[in-house]
Amino acid sequence: MAEVVLKNISKYFGDHKVIDQINLNIQTGEFVTLLGPSGCGKTTLLRMIAGLESIDEGELLIDGKRYNSIPAQNRSIAMVFQSYALFPHMNVRNNILFGLRIKKKADHEMFEKLQWVIPLLGLEGLEYRLPKQISGGQRQRVALARALVLDPEVLLLDEPLSNLDTALREMAMEELKRIHRTVGKTIIYVSHNQAEAMSMSERIAVLNAGTLEQYETPSGLYEQPKTSFVAEFIGSPAANMFDGELIHDNKDVYLESEIGTVYFDKERASAIRELIGRKFIISIRPQDIHFFKDYIPRRTSDTKLTVKVEFIVNMGDRNLVVGRTSRNVPVRFLITHDDEMTVGDEVSVIIDGRKIHLFDPDTKQNIFMM
Amino acid sequence: MRPVRKIPRSKYKTVIWMCGIVIVLIFILVPVYLLVKYSISDTASINTGGSPVPLWPYHPTLRCFIYLFQDFEFWGVVLNSFIIAISTVALSMALGVPASYVLARQQIPGKKIILLSLISIRLFPDISSVIPVATFFIKINVHSSLFGVILAHTLLSLPYVIFIGVSAFENIPRDIEEQATVMGANGFQIFFRILLPLAVPGLVAAAIYTFLLSWDEFIFAHFLLHPSGRLLTLTLYLKQKLTFQPPQNLLAAISVCLSIPVIIFTLLVQRQMISGITMGSVK
User: In chain A, which residues have their Cβ closer than 8 Å to the Cβ of B186?
Assistant: First the structure.
């Protein structure tokens, strides 16, 4: 069991800084996801923790011990690769036992580990099959079993579910959560899939272009995005982003934006008056734009907006509507299947001003969190 | 209206392909047929006294083979060839496999240049490199010995072994190696337990290729062994017999003996090449 601490970690590929001053504190037994778009450096960071990539700057501490120069072989870390990397010439049993054999464990210990891990991951009856003779989901479980028997301090998972189909992935996600509860290992998980990250992790580190955008719980990320990148990246469908300016007239403070006047909940910002006249990026989630058939404005923070429906996308449980304002700006919002709406309709929607976020266009920081 | 085609275009293509295949097969099989035919011919079927040579001998006979197999010298020659070929394989693999692993997997400056200069050794015709090699071998006193031939054949086969080996190692996904590293395996363990077993199909192909190269090599064997005249390989034996103008059927029988291992090993190569052992490990 171990606490993983990353202190100002940086990494260069040539002159290019791929990891920029990342600080992370992962507690013992925590399930943390490194989330970000492809090329953001999440896999590189994971490989640095594993010891497969060198750490150019900063410190990696596991249980307080400096790990920078400890070779990968000697780290008490197990890793599951995106490709699973099963040894193709060994059957499932030998794949699982490989690490224990390398560590020269006694036969009875290896036997006990097998007895424990095979039912845990539902691999009964597959012990003597070769990797090419089992399915993708089974390979993923073998890869996980192979990591678990080593009893590592930290378990690293590099997009282990990305090669599975949706149904299998959901099953595997539940299984992974169950295993995490059973074994209580510190797990660092890499994903580009926010739904996966949100549903499994205790905390998520959102990475973008080698920098850490925010390190928070899933609901924290959703409710309080620290940067405009997080606001746009977390949540599905993607948030609406508009440019706007904070205006103060005699009686009220509001935003003047691409989609017109937007009211919001002023109490959230402590020193709102100091920001008057400044420009902001306004983020509004599609979930926070509501369509009511009979509209009665209730709060002063509500904004009424009229849009022309451009198209409607069925999202399964709800419909996503893309509308255009009179100034031809696209606005995305969600309606239920019961709401009657057809393409070309002029509809009125209400923006919930309590849920909008404002970001500084230069620093991209959320002004409500400053 | 367009005239109705009786045979669709695809059928024409098939016919053309078939013709091509038949022509290629004729080119390959006719010499084999001639070789086998002559080796089992009786004298009357060869010296026909003016009438055309028959397509199949009048009285097929294994006389030449029986003669060969009873010849003590022939067995000695086969043994020599075999020892040389097997030793060449062993030496080439012992040198080539580690070299190809290092070239495939380690960061080495000028890797491309090394590979290129290795293969360029084989760009020179054997006949032009044999004199300096023979001269050098006389100097270091490995001339007129089986070891000298083994060394020379290793020289010939090593570039191929390394090339095949490099691609065999390069084809193994790096993930597998890194996975073993993370699991605690050191370089030797990774090489012997993971990489070597996975490279086996390619390496076996290289070994068999080396065997064949050595088995029917003539020029180097000729220059390195001939003067003494006591040590002979199969190819040299054939050449020696040729100078005495023996009957064609005996020559053909020697040639068949020379070819049999080639055919057997080629079949083995195919089987090894087809086995896709890495399938299913990654994705």
Answer: 73
Name the residue among A181, A133, A130, A180 with its Cα closest to residue A160: A180
Measured in degrees and rounded to the nearest 5, phi and psi for residue A4 equal -110, 125
From the list A67, A49, A45, A80, the residue with the least C-alpha distance to A180 is A80
**Per-domain residue ranges of chain A:** 4-232, 238-369
Tell me the per-residue pLDDT of A10-63, one tens digit each, with 9 for 90 and over.
999 988 999 999 999 999 999 999 999 988 999 999 999 999 999 999 999 998
Domain count, chain B: 1
| Beta carbons within 8 Å of A363's beta carbon, 6+ residues apart | none
Its pTM stands at 0.78
A238-369 — its CATH code? 2.40.50.140
Residues 206 to 245 of A: which have CB under 8 A from any B CB? Answer: none
* Residue A179 pLDDT: 86
Nearest beta carbon to residue A78 from set B182, B185, B277: B182
Q: What pLDDT does residue B283 have?
A: 33
B19 domain residue, yes or no: no
Residues A281 and A361: beta-carbon distance below 8 Å: yes
**Which range among A246-255, A285-294, B270-279 has the greatest average pLDDT?**
A285-294
Kindly give the pairing relationship between strand A77-80 and strand A319-324.
Answer: unpaired
Assigned fold of A4-232: Rossmann fold (3.40.50)
Q: Which two tokens stand for residue A254?
A: 């509001």
